[in-house]
């Protein structure tokens, strides 16, 4: 199997710079059909709408919906012969186990797995602490992400990567200078979300990791996705879907005793 036809989506919106960067990196050799949200639908996870409006776009189709809407509409109706789903390139990293379920980019890849279609989710780490999202990004800054994406699409099928896993979660550093090396990683399990009552009936959430994304302060060891991008590497995490089921003797006992109540 090869990836002759690619369904490209994202959660930043169909006109995002990152989506265009990976599109342009692949379009000369692959049939790339974009099915992406009309506007920014970041951090919506696997939210699914009841129905969506679809309109033609120069890159394919613009969907007034979520990334998961795009994958379902794409694989079941608009591009049913797609060999691969590519989600990205997201403006901002998707790192750590706790982020995977809330990321629209990663959720698009997860949805593809339920269709039996391999997927690659690709994101770019933008330095800048808590204010990283204010950065105006240029196409050239996605060079590492686009290069890594093209390399994986070109080679992963022949190498048998997708015979063992469902999707790849790729995170690249922002491009600056030489090409970045690639490291196979696992998602970090560090978690530090906090909540604070504001005294007026509201609660504010904070993810302190963005302030710790430096070589000296990041709390993750070598081998994790977050450590890799801080070290200037392209992180590639090979992941499976759905959630695993573990044998549990205690629960077995509870179920056996249920009828005795």
Automatic annotation (TrEMBL):
A divalent metal cation binds at residues 11-12, 42, 90. Its cofactor is a divalent metal cation. Binds 1 divalent metal cation per subunit. Its EC number is 3.1.3.5. It catalyses: a ribonucleoside 5'-phosphate + H2O = a ribonucleoside + phosphate. It holds the Pfam family SurE. The keyword Cytoplasm applies. Residues 6-188 form the Survival protein SurE-like phosphatase/nucleotidase domain. It is found in: Cytoplasm. Transmembrane segments: none annotated. The keyword Nucleotide-binding applies. One of its GO terms (cellular component) is cytoplasm. HAMAP family: SurE. Belongs to the SurE nucleotidase family. Nucleotidase that shows phosphatase activity on nucleoside 5'-monophosphates. This is 5'-nucleotidase SurE. The lineage of its organism: Archaea, Methanobacteriati, Methanobacteriota, Stenosarchaea group, Halobacteria.
């Amino acid at each position: 199997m090869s990836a002759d036809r690619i369904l490209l989506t994202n959660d930043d919106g169909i006109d995002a710079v990152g989506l265009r960067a990976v599109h342009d990196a692949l379009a000369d050799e692959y049939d790339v059909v974009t099915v992406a949200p009309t506007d920014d639908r970041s951090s919506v996870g696997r939210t699914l709408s009841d129905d969506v409006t679809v309109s033609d776009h120069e890159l394919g189709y613009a969907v007034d919906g979520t990334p998961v809407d795009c994958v379902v509409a794409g694989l079941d109706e608009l591009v049913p012969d797609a060999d691969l789903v590519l989600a990205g390139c997201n403006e901002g990293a998707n790192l750590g186990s706790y982020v995977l379920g809330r990321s629209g980019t990663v959720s698009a890849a997860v949805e593809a797995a339920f269709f039996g279609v391999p997927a690659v989710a690709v994101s770019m780490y933008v330095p800048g602490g808590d204010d990283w999202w204010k950065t105006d990004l240029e196409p050239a800054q996605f060079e590492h992400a686009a290069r890594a994406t093209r390399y994986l699409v070109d080679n992963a099928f022949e190498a048998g990567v997708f015979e063992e896993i469902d999707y790849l979660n790729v995170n690249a550093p922002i491009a600056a200078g030489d090409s970045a090396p690639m490291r196979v990683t696992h998602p970090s399990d560090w978690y530090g979300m906090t909540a604070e009552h504001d005294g007026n009936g509201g609660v504010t959430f904070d993810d302190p990791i963005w302030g710790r994304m430096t070589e000296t302060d990041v709390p993750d060891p070598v081998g994790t996705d977050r450590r890799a991008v801080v070290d200037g590497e392209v992180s590639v995490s090979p992941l499976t879907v759905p959630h695993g089921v573990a044998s549990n003797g205690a629960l077995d006992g509870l179920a056996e005793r249920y009828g005795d109540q």
